[in-house]
UniProtKB/TrEMBL annotation:
Database matches in InterPro entries: MethylDNA_cys_MeTrfase_AS, MethylDNA_cys_MeTrfase_DNA-bd, MethylDNA_cys_MeTrfase_DNAb, MethylG_MeTrfase_N, MGMT_N_sf, WH-like_DNA-bd_sf
Domain of life: Bacteria
Name of the featured protein: methylated-DNA--[protein]-cysteine S-methyltransferase
Any single biological process term in GO: methylation
Statement: the UniProt record of this protein carries the keyword DNA repair: yes
Keywords, ordered alphabetically: DNA damage, DNA repair, Methyltransferase, Transferase
Listed PROSITE patterns: MGMT
Domain Methylguanine DNA methyltransferase ribonuclease-like: 16-77
UniProt family annotation: Belongs to the MGMT family.
Record EC number: 2.1.1.63
A Gene Ontology molecular function term of the record: methylated-DNA-[protein]-cysteine S-methyltransferase activity
Organism of origin: Staphylococcus kloosii
Every Methylated-DNA-[protein]-cysteine S-methyltransferase DNA binding domain range: 84-163
Length: 166
């Protein structure tokens, strides 16, 4: 049986639930939506609320929200049934510098699949680690914000933090 440790974090209007295994951070979801967690884990899981166990993760996330951290240093655990395509997309997202954005088509081109824009958008929507894998840095070709699992207001808030405007 898989064991996950969980804790809630709030920064201003952002409410998240953070999950980790003994190997590293596994999921970040909005408080009212754990759909990625339930879609990803295909085995019985024991979830233990344990803020103390997640101290390092929560501390780095708070630093990010305060504008004092640009890179996360904690371990992540992506040892679940993700597709190779999803992993390629998420790896490309990790290459987007703090404070910058890319379009869905730029991500598709960067992974060598320039016509797979919708598939890229679908993979981004299934990103299990909001903020850490910076899917909020992906915008529409017209410069407009497009869907975000945490909501457009949260996406805008994260981009504002990264522009140094908190």
């Amino acid at each position: 049986m898989q064991k996950l440790y969980a804790a809630k974090i709030q920064f201003n209007d952002v409410f998240l639930k953070v999950y980790a295994t003994q190997r590293g951070l596994s999921f970040i979801s909005t408080i009212d939506s754990d759909e990625i967690l339930s879609q990803t884990i295909h085995e019985e899981v024991n979830i233990e609320e344990n803020e103390a166990y997640l101290t390092t993760y929560l501390q780095e996330l708070r630093q990010y929200f305060n504008g004092t951290r640009q890179v996360f240093e904690f371990a992540i655990d992506m040892d679940y049934q993700y597709t190779e395509f999803q992993r390629q997309v998420w790896t490309q997202l990790l290459k987007i510098p703090y404070g910058e954005t890319r379009t869905y088509s730029e991500i598709a081109t960067a992974i060598g699949r320039p016509k797979a824009i919708r598939a890229v958008a679908t993979a981004i929507a299934k990103n299990p680690l909001l903020i850490v894998i910076p899917c909020h840095r992906v915008i529409g070709k017209d410069g407009q914000l497009r869907g975000y699992r945490g909501g457009e207001a949260m996406k805008e808030r994260l981009l504002t933090i990264e522009k140094g405007q908190k």
